[in-house]
Every structure is written in C-alpha cells, then in structure tokens.
Amino acid sequence: MRTSARQAVLVLGMHRSGTSAVAGTISALGAALPRKTLMGSHECNERGLFEAFAIAAAHDQLLAAARSHWHDWREFDLGRLGFAAIEQQRDNLKAILVEEFAEEPFIVLKDPRICRFVPFTTSILAELNIRPIAVLPVRNPVEVAYSLQQRNQFALSKSALLWLRHVLDAEFFSRRMPRCFISYEKFIVDWRQDIDLVAARTGVVWPNRSAEAEKWIDDFLTADLHHQRHSFLAAEDSDQISPMVGETYHLLMKLAYDGETSETLAGLNRIRRQFNDGCKIFGPAIAAEELAAADAVLMAERDSVLAAHNYLVEKHDQLRRLYDDAMVQREAAVRETP
Fold first, then answer.
1. Domain-embedded: residue 303
2. pTM for the whole thing?
C-alpha cells in the first residue's frame, strides 16, 4: 500500500524575481532544503540562493541536451531529445532529488530554470510520490531587466523576452496544481499576509509557524533586498520592452491580488500564443546571432588565455635560464672552496 503523498513547494519565478527570498521564507516555515549541495551566499544574493548546485547543474545538462541554455527565451522543446536521452535525464535528476531530500515529507524546490519545463519536473516528483504546490513570485519586469543588465550585461530587450518566457510558461503549466501568485514588492514588506494567502489558496499547512521562525524571517526580509527600483514603464524603457510585457505583468498582478478568473487566463493564453508564434518566426535567426556573439566572446577569451599562456611560458624559460646560471655558479663556487 502506497504511503500518503509528500509535498513539494515549487517556487516558480523568473531569475532576479525574488525566488530566493520566497524559498528562504518557506524553508524557515518548515520546508526542507537540499541537504548535500545547497548553495551558500553569492555576490548576486548575499543572503543565500536556497537551491542545490547539483539540481541546477542537472537542469543545465537537460537544457544543453535540448540545444538550449538558461537564458534562452524560446519555448523549451523536450522533443529534441530522443526517448533514451529523456529517460537518462529523468533518471539523473530523480537520483539527485533523492540524494538531496531523502524521505523528507515537505520540501521546497527552487530553480528558475524549472519554469520552462514544469511538466518534466512534476512527472519526476509524481514518481517519488511528491505532490507539487506552486508559489509564483512576480516582480516588475523592468526591475528584473535592469538587474540582469547589471549582473549579466544583458540588453533590456533580451531580459524582457526572458521574463515573458519564464512567467508565461510557469503560469500555463502550473494550472493543474494548487498554486498562489504573490507580488515580490508586496512580499518584502508584508510577508505574513502573503504566506497566509498561500495557505488559503493551496491548502498547505506550515510546519513551523513559530515566533522564532517569524523573527528570523523579519530579519531576513529587509528593504535592502529590493534593488533596482523602477517604475513601469519609464519613457526611456518603452522602445526596448514590448507592450506585451506590460500587459502580461498587469494580468499576473490580477492573479496575485484578485485570484483566478477565466478572463485573466484567456488573456494570458492569447499572449502566450502570440509570443510563441513570434519566437518561431524570429527565434532561430536571433538565436544564431546570439550564438555567433557568444562564439566571438569565447574566441576573445581563448586569445587572452593563449596570450597569458605564452607570457607564462616565456617567463618560465627566463626563470629556467636564471636557475641554470645560478646552478653553474654554485658548482663553480663549490669547486673553488678549499
């Protein structure tokens, strides 16, 4: 007889959208974090990332196998892998999840990459008898774009497309599970209300809603977590960010504040179809240009490394000659010593 299902809170959000803040809060409320390769603090997030290096690496392998990468804004196509390759990726990720979470009954799983292949992830969780619950933080896409510009030197237009891909796919593929959308900006200043909203909309029961946990969260979620404050949309951004982004953000905020309606979901369906159609038309050409640019960067890095190598070889040869001369002088001095 199968035991009752375990639970996993999937934090589904775009990179730089507050997923770490949400995952850290949920972990303080009693959800188990990865235990083997949990990432520590990082220069891009000094209070911790709350995700596993092994899981992120496995996701990168999955994306690469499908000829994609973490900052690809096109639709993820698992069909690019054959059946054997899909099963290999599935077995690899399943083994890592078991290693990271063992038999924990209540876990939090966070990696923004998951937004693009939610069904693949949830099918593995089902094999492990883990029932998913989705928490979807949504942040002003202009702030996300400027954050990625600062961290990764991405153009605002590219970051906007990345934001669209992650939020539209996460919303679409999480419809069949208990879920709750939250505004990142509001969460930072009023996390208690949002956590109660998550519980009400998903049925989750927080194992550790204690005074000690709440104090830790209050200290953890401070205003300085909210970097890159920008209005939506400033005039200087409008020529780089599609109106489709603004419409999507508006609809997601309606999901966060007003709950789900057929009208809101229909609007998101329409935008997602339009976006996917556009990606099919323009995606291959732009992706080819991005690949060529990446190759140019790699070539420049290779030339830099080669120049550094040649410099070190030259220095090594100079030091070797100095060493040999010193050894000759030493032997001569030894011979002359009475």
1. yes
2. 0.81
How many folded domains does the chain comprise? 2
- The answer to whether residue 336 sits within a structural domain is yes
DSSP 166-186: HHHHHHHHTTTS-EEEEEHHH
List of E strands, 196-280: none
- pLDDT (tens digit per residue) in 98-148: 999 999 999 999 999 999 999 999 999 999 999 999 999 999 999 999 999
Do 74 and 202 lie in a common domain?
yes
Structural domain that includes position 35: 6-260
CATH code where residue 28 lies: 3.40.50.300
Token pair, residue 12, equals 């589904």
The residues, any chain, with a CB within 8 Å of residue 98's CB and separated by 6 or more, are 128
Looking up tokens 């998903």 gives: 202
Q: Quickly tell me which residue has 């009954």 as its tokens.
A: 105
User: Which H/E stretch holds residue 11?
Assistant: strand 6-11
Q: Do residues 7 and 131 touch, judged by C-beta distance below 8 A?
A: yes
CB 249 within 8 A of CB 143: no
Q: Structure tokens of 119?
A: 């069904």
- Which of 204, 59, 56 shows the shortest CA–CA distance to 120? 59
Considering the domain architecture, whether residues 139 and 223 belong to the same structural domain is answered as yes
CA distance 271 to 275: 6
Q: Are both 42 and 151 inside the same structural domain?
A: yes
Same domain flag for 188 and 293: no
More reliable by pLDDT, 89 or 2 = 89
Asked if residue 127 is part of any domain, the answer here is yes
